Structures
1.
Amino acid sequence: MKLDPRCVSIASALAFALGAAPVLAADAPVHAHVHGALQLDIALDGPTLTLSMEAPLDSVFGFEHAPRTAAEKKTAQDALAALRASGPLFTPDSAAGCVFKSASADSEALQPGAKVGEHADLDMTAEFTCANPGQLRRIDLGGLLDRFPRIQRLQAQIVTAQGQFRQTLQRPARVLTWGR
Ligand SMILES: [Zn+2]
């Protein structure tokens, strides 16, 4: 996978500023900002399936600042609309009978007064209601990968009544499975 040179230079600069101490040596999982790599949290609580995604804005928009041109504004609007109607992007196990309920998506880069020239993330949350949540063992992410070709890899954390799972999905794989 291609590491964005800007990310590397920022990490290097930070390491220098901190006296070259290891920057990512925390105990808690660190959501590193790596272009092409997403963090996806999947939580199943009763019938409610919640998908929470954190993505480098570059992986969704193809740029990482507030939209400036008409073309960038359209790209951003279309991407947000696709995420907010995210039923087609995520296909849970049909056995689980999940129906898309609602979703939200936004980025700090789109807020008024957002600083320009910094890395930015996009956050999305989608909710489904599942008739047979105990049957949920997989989610097909093909819709998401087709819609956003810059996404290369997802790190998923899955929390269900069956336990907690961690999975990494890398193209060309499209289906996240867990807990057999
Ligand atoms: Zn970035």
Note: Residues 1-6, 8-28 have pLDDT under 50 and may be disordered.
2.
Amino acid sequence: MMDLSQKVVLITGASSGIGEALAVALARHHCRLLLVARRGDVLNALADRLRPDADDVDVFVGDVVDADQCAAAVEKAVAKWGRIDVAILSAGLGIYRRVHEFEPAEAARMIQVNVNGVVNCVGALLPVMIRQQSGVIVGLSSLAAHFVSPVSAAYAASKAAVSTFLEGIGRGVGKYGIHVLTVEPGYIRTPMTRNNKKLPFIIEADDCAARIIRGIRRKRTLLRFPWQMMLLIRLTRIVPRILMRWVVQRKAGRIVMR
Ligand SMILES: NC(=O)c1ccc[n+]([C@@H]2O[C@H](COP(=O)([O-])OP(=O)(O)OC[C@H]3O[C@@H](n4cnc5c(N)ncnc54)[C@H](OP(=O)(O)O)[C@@H]3O)[C@@H](O)[C@H]2O)c1
């Protein structure tokens, strides 16, 4: 298993939720962390909290939709520590809307953050990792990539794009010593899901982070969890369509995410 001590880890979306939980857990592994997100005050407060455990911590305030800012974040890590061992791309938006409330500009922004954000970061990371002949790229997709409801149409489309993009990149980088891990979780308790009281098989963010770290250390290429949610998604493919439509429509009325 990969030893993470003193490894240089860049985390986008580190100011909240899964990214933050990963930063906390990786600090305990004594990593060198570059925390990336738009809210500098939140990142700086987190960096102060992590300093006693981490080997080193720095922050980069930026928007992943801007390719130049992604390149600058990667440059900052390389200038400071000489390399990037692991990059975790967790920055994302999860906006669910009922069809009569659909807002195309909002959906387009979410797709930009979720898809272009990952594409921009991978674009900035590849030359560095190819030069190093090593590196791990971890992308946060979702089980939503495999199950779409009326409220999650744009979100699910963005995550299907992320999974497909990472799968393709992953197939081409092995010869450079680079490894790609696609993570497809079910519901995780984070600020993204806080408006929903009853999400099935929800997992705590620190449990999610522990599973991702295990996946990185074991060089996994795909993580899907929890198994109960996977089973539910498989069942939706075999239950009669008419029953499924009824379930989805009832659920669509209740799910509201930010
Ligand atoms: N929670 C779930 O149930 C769940 C399930 C499956 C997959 N996921 C995926 O896991 C990832 C993390 O989700 P989460 O639940 O941890 O969400 P979260 O708590 O809302 O955190 C999202 C993070 O993304 C950052 N971010 C958003 N837009 C950004 C931008 N344009 N540029 C840079 N950073 C940006 C936010 O920081 P700033 O606001 O400071 O920029 C924040 O740190 C997302 O990709 C999400 O789709 C979540």
Note: Residues 96 and 153 are 8 Å apart (CA to CA).
3.
Amino acid sequence: MTAATMRALQATAFSIDSLALAEHPVPVPRRGEILVRIRAASLNYRDLAILAQAYIPTLPLPYVPASDACGQVVAVGEDVTRFAVGDRAIPLYTQGWHDGKPTPEQRTRRTLGAPLSGVLQEYVAVPAEDAVTVPPHLSDAEAATLPIAALTAWSTLQEGDVKTGDTVLVQGTGGVALFALQFAKLAGAQVIVISSSDEKLARAKALGADVGINYRATPDWHVAVKEATGGRGVDIIVETVGSTLDKSLAAVAFGGFIGVIGFVAGYEAKIPLRAVIGPMIRVQGIATGSRTRFEAMNRAITLHGLKPVIDSTFALADAADAFRRLEKGAHFGKIVIDI
Ligand SMILES: NC(=O)c1ccc[n+]([C@@H]2O[C@H](COP(=O)([O-])OP(=O)(O)OC[C@H]3O[C@@H](n4cnc5c(N)ncnc54)[C@H](OP(=O)(O)O)[C@@H]3O)[C@@H](O)[C@H]2O)c1
């Protein structure tokens, strides 16, 4: 009997132009696994960095990119009780990380979309323990935005102990930033957003942002942030930019929290240590979150009927255009691939 095949989008080189459809065998779920027919996937900055060979430079080629997806369970292996055929499921980005902290092995070797095979394909098989159910009010496309961007924003605010009345600074209007904006508003916080675009700032305000600062027009945005808080500074910073950590330290309140998430403006930052020590700032690296956190986040999303912000949707065959849009930074929220 010949194995069933499926469409998969693979990169044969480290370049967007190398992305092309290929025929791959449909995986067969083993004991404890579910086979998920993927309906939608979403892109993250990480996917772009990997494709540019800036993130996992020794990744063997070809590979199937992207980590975040939602689909329907179409078959289950022996001993699966967590899901039944017909259920919708979202695979965990960090396979095996269920609670607490991940092991270094899980963090570096068990992530979907490199080094594990990604989700820009019609089927994936994952352990039933390594997927979560879907908030019922979300479409497949909306649910596909959650595993990295939403969970990282959620984890950052949890680690920063967000409270009603806090002020949260969100950098940019990409995937993580807009989820952070939405979750911070749910928590009763004031939100300041910085962006390169006045038009995007207006859209962020329509989503609930209280203050918008254009970081192109106001390169000293940390001064403007301080002023917007009456000189007090912000309680939590969702640091997706990375190299601006010095400015974030100048904008954070005494005893505040900086969740260091990303590197869109570079991997290096030079910081004055006195800005950390005296004001007792917590600076903490954030790497997505566990299954337990994902499930708690989904309960909050369901309770509040929260809808992720989808920028645009592309067909699988046009995924290269989706990567180009991400690369240009033209997007507001999440870019989705319909599979
Ligand atoms: N540690 C983790 O677990 C984790 C998880 C998710 C993401 N990340 C990282 O976090 C970063 C953001 O990820 P993402 O998926 O949200 O990316 P994204 O959707 O591409 O958004 C990036 C946004 O950053 C803004 N930006 C670019 N340069 C900036 C600058 N100099 N100052 C302020 N904002 C700037 C842009 O917003 P405007 O267009 O509004 O200017 C852009 O839309 C990436 O480095 C990613 O790798 C890490």
Note: The first helix runs from residue 45 to 51.
4.
Amino acid sequence: MSKAKLEYDSLPYPTVVVVGGGFAGLEIIQGLNGKPYKVLLLDKQNHHCFQPLLYQVATASLSADSIAHPFRRTIAPMANVAFRMCTVQRVDPPAKLIHTDRGDVPYDILIIATGSTTNFFGNHRMEQEAMQLKSISQALDIRSDFLQDFEAALYAQDEAGQRRCLNFIIVGAGPTGVEMAGALAEIRRTVLKREYRELDSDRMQIWLVDSNERVLKSFSEKSSAHALGYLESMGVNVKLGARVASYDGEVVNFQDGSTMEANTLLWAAGVKGVLIPGLEAGEVPKANRYGVDRFNQINGLPDVYALGDVALMSEGQWERGHPQVAPAAIQQAQLLVKNVIRKSKGEAMTPFTYTDKGSMATIGRYKAVVDAGNLHFGGLIAWLGWMFVHLMALVGYRNRLQVLMGWAWKYMSWKNTIRLIIRPYVRRTVQQAVEVPESA
Ligand SMILES: Cc1cc2nc3c(=O)[nH]c(=O)nc-3n(C[C@H](O)[C@H](O)[C@H](O)COP(=O)(O)OP(=O)(O)OC[C@H]3O[C@@H](n4cnc5c(N)ncnc54)[C@H](O)[C@@H]3O)c2cc1C
């Protein structure tokens, strides 16, 4: 047994278990590093994923490993922190026990930072047929899918078939939808036009659909209008005030009775917190998040905290909870670390107040929008600002360098270069159809 393991096991400290190594969880373990706690990070993945750049992996601008960072590399120098890869299945608060797919784990303090997942609002067929963008494997699915569609279009028998292959529908005009639509529009203008010469690139249509009346609803009206102008100038069809009712993998039905044929629909129209059985006492069902007090403790569950996307804290202007974004997760984690230490010393804890530093989204080359306080601007400065902020927020110097190089290459060559179908995407319904039934 290694010296490091012996040292960790014999630490005479209370055990803090952190479930989820996203923005919130990672900040917690960094804050508790070197403090008198035995910290155990549990995550179903072996890496942290920088979700804000997932769309660039999905659209072949960045490689997957440039936006992911292995937990073991992060915790290697942290003597009081350990990591176990597992899926947490249930928590038993009275017994202070966590049940995972790899066994049980006891805790003194439990911190839930499980983030959020795509919300299909109970539409199971949509969940089966639509693509989503919350993880690296889903980003790689999207990358394979659009490249496979380009190749398939060359075999289509007629124009209608070709158009179906090249019709991309994105539901949800929030930052993810807007960024994906812009990136696909750039691919049409560069890659499709230059490298798929037998195809008429105008047959590729990108639709950005939202039931709201404007794109980027959470941004200022000025930035929304700015973003809409960018999208339209890039040839994206923006369909606002339109609600998607169903999708069967080939045809999208809208609530107003209209239809559209498309092989690909990306659902980016909502998220819901990843809740863990056993903690129902703290759930706010309508919000799909855990109700927490100003110290991030889950309502009614002592020594159990939740933070980040999965937590719903009512505070100041944020009556219905903070936005589900990285800064909220990070700020909550930074204060929670201090409060856990204060509480153990018998000192008073400090209530959380969110500092909103603004929002930014990028639509394409030189096209981005920034809301910062009363400042709302777009264009080159906003685009450079967006790149700088995202570069600095990445975990690890290697990832920063890799992303910087990736962007430099892309913007100099005008190409999305990582266009490899390494793991072909097979639709879930097709996968299920070819699965051999157990009885066979
Ligand atoms: C495509 C996309 C683009 C985004 N762009 C931006 C942006 O530009 N700016 C911004 O501020 N925010 C952005 N966000 C939102 C931001 O990424 C989230 O707000 C942030 O990741 C929340 O952090 P978190 O720590 O709460 O959860 P996450 O970062 O989601 O981490 C949750 C972790 O919990 C683990 N986990 C979940 N369930 C279990 C379980 N049962 N057992 C074990 N482990 C589990 C997961 O594997 C994951 O590692 C974006 C999100 C997406 C999806």
Note: Confidence is low (pLDDT under 50) at residues 436-440.
